[in-house]
Amino acid sequence: MSIFETLSNEVTGFLGLGAVIKLFQTGDYSSLKTIDGVFSVMRPIIPLLLVIEILRTLFTRKFKKGQYLMPFLIYVFNDVTGKFISFGMVALCIGWFSKYALIHTYFIWYWIVYGYIVWEFAHFIYHFLGHKVRLFWCLHSTHHAPEHMNLFVSHAHFFLEAPYADIIRTSICILLGVDPPVLFFIMFIDGFWGSFIHVGEHLIKNARLGFLNNLILTPSHHRVHHAKNPLYMDTNFCNLLNIWDRIFKTYQPEEEGIEIEYGISREINNDNFFDVYFGEFYGLFRDIAKAPGIKNKFLYIFMPPGWSHTGEHKTAKVVRSKFIEENLKY
Ligand SMILES: [Zn+2]
Ligand SMILES: [Zn+2]
Questions:
Q1: Per-residue pLDDT tens for 51-107?
Q2: Which of 32, 36, 108, 172 is deepest in the core (most CB within 10 A)?
Q3: How many A from CA of 143 to the centre of ligand 2?
């Protein structure tokens, strides 16, 4: 295959245009009557929004290479590693746990609603642990490193995070009886919305989406989730239905007077791929090496980021509670 062909395949693949091109080439639109057909023409929407976002910043002269370069490098790295290490975690978990399912459901609207509520619960668990267990934070922090928000940030993930997320989410859903076709349906909607909530200020400045902000998780809520401001830390873990954030009291709307500062609270060199990708692992190994006794070494792995064997914890919970106590007397 020529370099040109490889590049053109990569671009078509990234933009998700394969199915749309085929539709135009064959003139056979019958696939649009199926859910798969509709999904395949929806796929290019987020990549195209990303292209529009970049073009807009170029025209308004607000384009800053640094805001896109690191998520892009991570995307390329994951794409390359993903080609060699193929994870079938979803298929494996379905195979393992289907026989232990507590109930049996099928593809009908009320079981889809049930499935979505279960899926959001499973997503909440995976995401919450990604912030509260230091080892899992090492996997998740790459996604939180960018100091600007744009649609490319949805691609910035440590390559092992997807299988880790898939194991937790799929296992919980299958055990609670979510039908695999319903699960795939939900995964598509979730993937679409999960990308869209990373839309940057260049494209949508006020991302509360009007009245929707009271009903579902909007890009505004996810911007809060990506913020390192004390009030915003470790909040809004859901993806589309934020019921579980409300139930577990991790819900936090964007406050008028508190401007979002994106990123993570440790010193980080965002131009250095290794720091963005492996920096948290390095920090964890350093803390384990320095910790006295085997118990403290283990605790560093499983306690939240910011936990210290000296008792001087700087966890998100401590920082946020202190801020609320000092600044917001409810
Ligand atoms: Zn997160
Ligand atoms: Zn995100």
A1: 777 777 777 767 776 667 777 766 766 665 554 444 478 888 888 999 999 999 999
A2: 172
A3: 6
Cβ density class 94-131: b for 16+ within 10 Å, e for less: beebeeeeeeebeeeeebbebbbebbbbbbbebbbbbb
Determine, yes or no, domain membership for 38: no
At residue 202, what are phi and psi to the nearest 5 degrees?
A: -65, -30
Residue where the block lists tokens 């993570």: 264
User: What is the pTM assigned to this prediction?
Assistant: 0.81
Whether residue 179 contacts residue 111, with contact meaning beta carbons closer than 8 Å, is answered with yes
Q: Per the domain annotation, does 189 fall within a domain?
A: yes
> How many angstroms separate the alpha carbon of residue 262 from the centre of ligand 2?
11
Assign 130 to helix, strand or coil.
Answer: helix
Q: Using CA atoms, how far apart are residues 280 and 299, in angstroms rounded to an integer? A: 16
For ligand 1, the distance from its centroid to the CA atom of residue 226, given in whole angstroms, is 7
Domain that holds residue 205: 73-330
Q: DSSP letters of 96-114? A: HHGGG-SS---SSHHHHHH
Question: For residue 152, what are the CA distances in angstroms to 36, 96, 156, 161?
Answer: 25, 34, 7, 17
Q: Looking at the 3D structure of the chain, how many domains does it have?
A: 1
**165: exposed, middle or buried (Cβ count in 10 Å: 0-12, 13-18, 19+):** buried
**Is the separation of the CB atoms in 240 and 216 below 8 Å?**
yes
Please name the helix (run of DSSP H) or strand (run of DSSP E) that holds residue 144, with its range, or none: helix 134-144
Of 108, 119, 140, 133, the C-alpha closest to 193 is: 119
Q: What secondary structure, in 3-state letters, does 267-298 show?
A: CCCCCCHHHHHHHHHHHHHHHHHHCCHHHHHH
Q: Which pLDDT value is given to residue 85?
A: 46
Q: How many helices (H) and strands (E) does the chain have?
A: 15, 0
Q: Does 171 fall in a domain?
A: yes
